[in-house]
């Protein structure tokens, strides 16, 4: 199951962000983080932050391990352009376009787990939840005991 993270209205031109996105496309998560830390580009900081957000989402929402993730797809699309004017000679004004980007990042597992099994016990088949009913009840009881 792919994990999707989006970054919208980034105030860097898409052409410049694509240079960074092309570096990490298809790489493992650890390798991509290393590349982004040592790349000297303005766009690497927001893309690294987006990658960390996607990793946290995969870990918390889907119980996936960071070492088993890779960047399946990363796309950089054009966002809205902010229009400004620059004064020119003889009273003219030229338009300047401040471009924005929308970045979408898909993470996926390198080695797929068996589908439809509980992530805690691994025995019972599960439809919509990641945990079977008995494991969910155990967690609920444990959390209720913790509150008291």
Please characterize this protein's 3D structure:
It is a single chain. The chain is α+β, with helices and mostly antiparallel strands. It has 2 domains: 3-113, Ribosomal Protein L22, Chain A, CATH 3.90.470; 114-148, no CATH class. 37% of the residues lie in helices and 26% in strands. The protein contains 4 helices and 5 strands; from the N terminus they run βαααββββα. The protein has helices spanning 14-24, 29-38, 44-62, 133-147, and strands spanning 3-10, 69-78, 82-87, 93-98, 101-109. A hairpin with a 5-residue loop joins β3 and β4. The longest helix has 19 residues, at 44-62. The protein is elongated and about 80 Å long. The model has no long low-confidence stretch (mean pLDDT 88).
Protein traits:
148 residues; alpha+beta; Ribosomal Protein L22, Chain A; three-stranded antiparallel sheet; 26% strand; elongated
Briefly say what this structure is.
The chain is an alpha+beta fold and 148 residues long.
The overall pLDDT average reads 88
CATH architecture of the largest domain: Alpha-Beta Complex
What number of domains?
A: 2
Estimated helix fraction: 25-40%
Uncertain ranges? none
The main pleated sheet reads as:
3 strands, antiparallel
Strand order of the largest sheet: 1-5-2
- The termini sit apart by 36 Å
Q: State which percent range the strand residues make up.
A: 25-35%
CATH topology of the largest domain: Ribosomal Protein L22, Chain A
Helices and strands: which structural class?
A: alpha+beta
Number of helices: 4
Shape: elongated
Spell out the CATH superfamily of the largest domain. Answer: Ribosomal protein L22/L17
Order of helices and strands: EHHHEEEEH
């Amino acid at each position: 199951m792919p994990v999707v993270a989006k970054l919208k209205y980034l105030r860097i031109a898409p052409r410049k962000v694509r240079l960074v996105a092309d570096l990490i496309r298809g790489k493992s998560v650890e390798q991509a983080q290393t590349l982004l830390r040592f790349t000297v580009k303005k766009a690497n900081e927001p893309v690294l932050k987006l990658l960390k957000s996607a990793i946290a989402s995969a870990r918390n929402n889907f119980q996936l391990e960071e070492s088993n993730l890779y960047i399946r797809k990363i796309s950089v699309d054009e966002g809205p352009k902010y229009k400004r004017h620059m004064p020119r000679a003889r009273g003219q004004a030229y338009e300047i376009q401040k471009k924005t980007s929308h970045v979408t990042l898909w993470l996926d597992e390198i080695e797929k787990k068996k589908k439809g099994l509980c992530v805690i016990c691994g025995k019972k088949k599960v439809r919509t939840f990641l945990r079977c009913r008995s494991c969910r009840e155990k967690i609920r009881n444990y959390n209720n005991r913790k509150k008291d």
